[in-house]
């Protein structure tokens, strides 16, 4: 497979999340120029209580998000547009809020492990540093939390499921255990895992145990386990500006090849492996 086989991208953003640029039509034009046929916009979801409002649209802006999509849907011939949203697994508002989003006109929900739940119920941010001695416990809790996201049935796919690479600097035995748990749940539930190419753009990390350099995500040992487990994998760019619509897709495909993964074509409803 080469980059020309990737005709869709279901994880992109727009200005409404306050840390991205461009609007629906801008991304659609960029998608057409890049040779994509299908584009999903899945900006960061608001919540009814506007938690973490600095990096996502407000609840009052949801209607404008849907209306903006409807106005732009047919503005770029040759590109099929779909409206999604990226949502964390907030146990205190789900599944009711997911149902509200779908009723409002959202077509699909991408699950986002930007936070995860510890055994005591505390919500931890994936982006915050953890004490070295606490890493095994946090990694296992992350694995349990993402597996629960998969098993909830609320999400069309799980975005960057290896996001624990943000706070964990070394591939620990617990990382492998978490990867197996996530991949096995995804395979059994038929929920795709997203290999997120935007991670290649982030500052690379040096493994404290091996000295090897790697992006925080996608983390290759994770995806080798996904390949072994046989879970379905899709490639998305997580673009936060139109010019990054197919960022590092070549690197993503190279990683897939090394891990024995054949990326799938996501249709918003089902996945069909490319032949």
Major sheet characteristics: 5 strands, parallel
Helical residues, percent: 25-40%
Coarse shape: globular
Describe the strand arrangement of the main beta sheet, using strand numbers: 1-2-3-4-7
Number of domains: 1
Mean pLDDT: 94
The count of helical stretches stands at: 7
Here the CATH topology equals TIM Barrel
Total strands: the figure is 13
The helix-and-strand class reads alpha/beta
Cα-based radius of gyration, to the nearest Å: 18 Å
- Approximately what portion of the residues adopt beta-strand conformation? 15-25%
Order of helices and strands: EHEHEHEEEHEHEEEHEHEE
Unreliable spans? none
CATH-level-4 superfamily name: Metal-dependent hydrolases
CATH class, named Alpha Beta
Per CATH, the architecture is Alpha-Beta Barrel
Q: What's the helix and strand layout?
A:
Blueprint: E1 8-9, H1 24-33, E2 38-44, H2 62-72, E3 80-88, H3 96-103, E4 108-112, E5 115-117, E6 123-125, H4 135-152, E7 157-158, H5 173-189, E8 193-196, E9 205-206, E10 213-214, H6 220-229, E11 233-236, H7 249-258, E12 264-266, E13 271-273
Parallel strand pairs: 1-2, 2-3, 3-4, 4-7, 8-11
Antiparallel strand pairs: 5-6, 9-10, 12-13
Structure characterization notes:
The protein has helices at residues 24-33, 62-72, 96-103, 135-152, 173-189, 220-229, 249-258; strands at 8-9, 38-44, 80-88, 108-112, 115-117, 123-125, 157-158, 193-196, 205-206, 213-214, 233-236, 264-266, 271-273. Helix 4 (135-152) runs parallel beside helix 5 and helix 5 packs across helix 6 (220-229). It is built from seven helices and 13 strands. The chain has a single domain (3-273), classed as TIM Barrel (Alpha-Beta Barrel). The strands form five sheets. The protein has a five-stranded parallel beta sheet, with helices on one face. It is globular, with a radius of gyration of 18 Å. The mean pLDDT is 94. The termini are close together. The chain is of the alpha/beta class.
């Amino acid at each position: 497979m080469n980059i020309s086989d990737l005709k869709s991208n279901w994880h992109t953003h727009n200005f409404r999340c306050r840390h991205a640029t461009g609007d629906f039509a801008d991304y659609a034009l960029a998608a057409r120029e890049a040779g994509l046929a299908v584009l999903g916009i899945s900006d960061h979801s608001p919540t009814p209580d506007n938690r973490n409002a600095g990096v996502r649209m407000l609840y009052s802006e949801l209607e404008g998000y849907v209306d903006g999509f409807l106005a732009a849907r047919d503005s770029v011939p040759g590109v099929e547009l779909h409206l999604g949203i990226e949502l964390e697994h907030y146990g205190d508002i789900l599944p009711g809020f997911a149902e509200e989003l779908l009723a409002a006109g959202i077509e699909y929900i991408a699950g986002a492990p930007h936070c995860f739940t510890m055994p005591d119920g505390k919500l931890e941010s994936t982006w915050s540093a953890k004490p070295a001695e606490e890493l095994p416990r946090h990694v296992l809790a992350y694995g349990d939390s993402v597996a629960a996201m998969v098993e909830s049935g609320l999400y069309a796919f799980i975005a960057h499921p290896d996001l624990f690479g943000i706070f964990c600097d070394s591939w620990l035995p617990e990382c492998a255990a978490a990867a197996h748990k996530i991949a096995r749940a995804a395979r059994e539930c038929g929920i795709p895992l997203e290999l997120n190419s935007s991670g290649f753009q982030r500052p690379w990390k040096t493994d404290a145990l091996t000295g090897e350099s790697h992006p925080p995500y996608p983390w290759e040992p994770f995806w080798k386990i996904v390949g072994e487990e046989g879970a379905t994998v899709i490639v998305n760019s997580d673009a936060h500006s139109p010019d990054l619509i197919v960022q590092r897709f070549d690197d993503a495909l190279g990683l897939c090849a090394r891990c024995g993964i054949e990326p799938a074509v996501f249709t918003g409803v089902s996945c069909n492996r490319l032949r």
